[in-house]
Amino acid sequence: MLRFMRANTGSWIIKIILGLIVVVFVFLGMGSMGSKNRDHVAMVNDMPITLDEYRQSYQNTIEEMRRRFGGNLSEELLQMLQVKKQAMDRLIEERLISFEADRLDFDVSDKELQESLASIDAFQKNGVFDINVYLMVLSRNRLTPEAFESMQRENIRRSKVMDLVMNSVKVSDAEAREWYIQNNSEVSINYVKFDQERYQIPMNDDAVSQYYEKNREKYKSEPQLTVEYLRYAFDDYRDQAEITSESIELYYEENRDKFMTPEQVEASHILIKVEADADDDAVEAARMEAHEIYEMALSGAEFEDLAREFSQGPTKDKGGYLGTFSRNDMVKPFADKAFSMQPQEIGEPVRTQFGWHVIKVISRIDEAVKSVDEAAPEIRETLVDEEVRDIAYNAASHAFDAVIEGDTLEQAALITGTTLENVGPFTMKGPEWEFPDPSTFARSAFELSLNEIGDIKEIGSAYYIIKPIDRIEPSVLPLENVLDRVQKDLAAQLSREAAESAAREFFAHISDHMNQSQGTTALEKIEPDTIKSAAQERGFELHDTPFFKKDGVIEGLGREPALAEAAFRLSDVKRLPDDIIKGNGGYYVIFLKERKTPSLDMIKENISSARKTIQGYKQSEMYASWMEKLKKESIIEIEPGLIDG
Questions:
Q1: Which residues, 6 or more positions from 304, have their beta carbon under 8 angstroms from its beta carbon?
Q2: Contact predicate 23/52, CB 8 Å
Q3: CB of 576 within 8 A of CB of 526?
Q4: Phi, psi of 302 (to 5 degrees)
Q5: Distance separating alpha carbons of residues 462 and 457, to the nearest angstrom
Q6: What are the beta bridge partners of residue 501?
Q7: What is the pLDDT of residues 227-238, one digit of tens each?
């Protein structure tokens, strides 16, 4: 199973299988079943974790990250997320949960297994488990029912352990109420902002030189690498892809929705706008105007001319033409009306959230479904794309196996029929020639130590195995080479210091003024007018905000966590903080304007969802604590250097 999954990482069917065997905390490793008898990379209570298992867990973790982050996933983010450590942790935790299932003597009955298999969408036809589909899916993935059902039994055993642990977490009404109030209270504030961009401080050559000498380490050249690499481009294997009629039929059955064209309508409309919160008189006036236009259209006036003259919608200049759309493309009242009409029919006005619409249906297109034969060319192309990825990965995996077993990259290249290539030196921007994604290539290379052979990386439309063979270390650049950067950095520092100084002087002035005039408790009673006058004297403006939540966006300021946290510590008794606040956009002096807490009705309405949210947090904490205890009670040994970096 591990060999199969590794060879087919990225294919549509393996994503289905991965989805099937996931348990509560997405333990994607397969355990020891079906693994090769080879050197281990870790031991958990004398139970080995093999290299194959670790590599598969790593690839599965990457695939999960892709689903989670989509196009935002980068090598930099993968490093930050410690994917290597996550992959190993999942295998270790999987082992420990299995040990707990053994200790608790948990078993899985045939009935439980049957119910589990019957609930899996990939094995269903028309919503019902189908034995032929089941066998076809397994056969397509070179799995026997015995092997798959053995894995499924183990997953069910682990889920029973997880249920036992998680179901012990309880949340009281009082706890949920307090959490909801804390997270749904709102405040509004007055503030004066001291933006560093306001301050332009003059610099001389001596100041620039001194700043450069003090911060020389900031102005180094970029490190550079030269690497050897093996490249397995997907398109190089296109002639090896073999797509059977059975696999085309299976894909068709699993993806019927892709080959269906829903019923569609081609239409034009005339819109008379009405605000959603308009009173009854405004709604009726708009309806009467729309009805008059409807009567003119019935009397023979050209619909397109009426639209250009009267419509208040964005399609006015196009004679109201909307084009062709399906039912789900439009708001429900509009769609219900349009799809109830016949071609060339003009319908009585219908109201939506936008106003009153007069609709003319031009034509209708019935729902259509491509047959498997009609869809076959498209499916074949999709499956070929997936197959060549799989073949390329299998070749790269074969090369990586050879390296692990002691061969050089050059020997691995010969074994797999590719060429060992060399590129460099290059910086973190990557090689400047013939690389579709040079920055990703560079990040993958720079995360490796000199002469370390990296894991298989998917970059662009190829898999790579990279080995750094030479590194040029950074060196401090002469001042004349980085003069613009030094001047810019010094200017930013001087502006930042000036903004902070102005904010502190302003805050001190308010504090001193209030203390001298009203005593030591005056800060608790300070009013906005005091801040406003002091701000205007210095050429600043007192702003205010609408209500915002502690973790929300502040209108006009964006996300300012430090400011929001300080604001929520204020009260009617203490409306001014103890100090200025450093935010993302500068320095702030703030003053509590008003605090608003949820009503009793809102608390009552949302307490159930609040309880579920808290329960999720507490379950995560419970799991982490429980797993830490299991780890402390176990003997866990990991191959040195395996998950470092």
A1: 268, 319, 320, 321
A2: no
A3: yes
A4: -65, 125
A5: 8
A6: none
A7: 999 999 999 999
| Helix ranges restricted to H, 319-371 | 332-338
Question: CA-CA distance, 585 to 567, in Å (whole number)?
Answer: 16
**Whether pLDDT at 297 is above 90:** yes
The structure tokens listed for 421 are: 């290539």
Q: Give long-range contacts, CB 8 A cutoff, 24+ apart: 455-459.
A: 455/55, 455/58, 455/400, 456/59, 456/393, 456/396, 456/397, 456/400, 457/75, 458/10, 459/435
On whether the pTM is more than 0.85, the answer is: no
pLDDT in tens, 335-360: 999 999 999 999 999 999 999 999 99
What average pLDDT does range 1-27 have in this prediction? Answer: 35
HSE toward the beta carbon, residue 250, CA cutoff 13 A: 22
Residue 264 is classified by DSSP as E
The rounded distance, in Å, linking the Cα atoms of 51 and 108 is 29
- Supply angle C-alpha 530, 536, 538, rounded to 5: 110
Rounded distance, CA 420 to CA 408, Å?
10
Q: Which residues, in sequence order, are CB contacts of 63 under 8 Å at separation 6+? A: 9, 10, 15, 18
Type of residue at 98:
S
CB 225 within 8 A of CB 446: yes
Report how far apart the first and last C-alpha atoms of the chain are (Å, whole number). Answer: 29
The rounded mean pLDDT for the chain is: 85
Cα 49 to Cα 53: distance, rounded to the nearest angstrom: 6
For 46, residues 6+ apart whose C-beta sits below 8 A from its C-beta are 635
Cβ(409)–Cβ(403) below 8 Å: yes
| Phi and psi, residue 522, nearest 5° | -65, -30
pLDDT in tens, 562-572: 999 999 999 88
Q: 């502040």: which residue's tokens?
A: 554
Six-digit token string for 627: 């797993």
